[in-house]
Amino acid sequence: MLRLSPCTASFPATIDEALAEKAAHGQAASYVAGGTDLYPNMKRRVQTPTHVIDIRGIPELRQLETLSDGRLAVGSCVTLTELIRHPAVRKGWPVVSHAAALISTPLLQNMGTIGGNLLLDTRCNYYDQGYEWRKAIDFCMKKDGDTCWVAPSSPRCWAVQSSDLVPVMVALDASMRFEGPDGARMVRARDLYLNDGIEFLAKRPEELLTTVELPPLAGARASYQKLRRRGSFDFPVLGVAAWARMNGGTTVSEARIVIGAVGSAPLVSDEAARSLVGKALSDEAIDEAARLAARPAKPLDNTDFTIGWRKDMVPVYLRRALEALR
To answer: In whole angstroms, what is the distance from residue 265 CA to residue 262 CA?
Structure first.
């Protein structure tokens, strides 16, 4: 049986208390809400905080409300189950409910939070293993070693960003509010994720994610398609989010296409999105956009399935996501 690494815990009741706890313990502390990612990583000894700051008791982080300007404000501790079931989300942002429903299983959806899924640690076949397994092959660059076993000659880590909600938030142009010792700041979802398996977030270590803000769809359309081995539980080996605004319901005036789980950051295909502008979502336009978006997607041997087949599936799932918009 895998056991948690030794640690202490605190249970702040306010954001200021949480920030004070983080300042007191420094890099030895980690924030935790549902713990569905952190605690398994602690058992595998890939993350080893000596203090955890449980933020579930902070009321502001559990709020979900529609603001006066039509935006949806979601506290970082709102659970995936709440995202799936909440009437405001289902009506105004159905793609978010749909993507959340594809994450893991109902038990873990009850525990996991939107904040945890958006800040999910990058994943890799050589990293997400027990300590003894990793020790037997020599540790990887992401934890305790100096070699990326996916690409041994590479100077960087290629662990994959495997969140279902991240491509959706980038496609919706959501923003995230972080609180830290120097005050609050807003970061666009598009700017938060960095293409490095180790330094994968433009988040300061002491900062706490407090709120996710989603702009209203306001007549636009959005969809999400996920590839995984099984019909439930599994992380995506490919996730495609698409968003489009239509003129008169027929011609695309603006579009966004985001591919997840093919790199350390979501892949935003501006070229493919621009190719749709001014056109109807015809089969020909969709095929061209799918070809352009798939071209830079280069999956590596660090998740499930073979590289070649995953590459072949990228345009297939891009077409499905774009077809769903019409």
So the answer is: 8
70-74 long-range Cβ contacts below 8 angstroms, 24+ apart: 70/215, 70/216, 70/218, 71/213, 71/214, 71/215, 71/216, 72/213, 72/214, 72/216, 73/211, 73/212, 73/213, 74/114, 74/211, 74/212, 74/213, 74/214
Mean local confidence (pLDDT), 238-261: 95
pLDDT at 61: 98
In 3-state terms, what secondary structure has residue 206? coil
Rounded distance, CA 176 to CA 71, Å? 12
Tokens representing residue 225 in the block: 């398609």
For residue 92, what pLDDT band results from cuts at 50, 70 and 90? very high
CATH among 3.30.390.50, 3.30.9.10, 3.20.20.60, 3.30.930.10 for 221-325 = 3.30.390.50
User: pTM of the predicted model, to two decimals?
Assistant: 0.96
User: What torsion do the CA atoms of 208, 241, 199, 19 make, to the nearest 10 degrees?
Assistant: 0
Reference 186, options 174, 196, 195, 194; nearest CA is: 174
Domain boundaries, the chain: 59-119+160-214, 221-325
**Fold (topology level) of 59-119+160-214:** 3.30.465
Q: State the pairing for strand pair 175-180/72-75.
A: unpaired
Looking at residue 239, its amino acid is: G
- Which residue's structure tokens are 């352009």? 292
Beta strand extents in the chain (DSSP E only): 8-10, 29-32, 51-54, 64-66, 72-75, 175-180, 183-188, 208-214, 221-227, 238-247, 251-260, 267-268
pLDDT of residue 250: 87
Which pair of tokens denotes residue 297? Answer: 């997607």
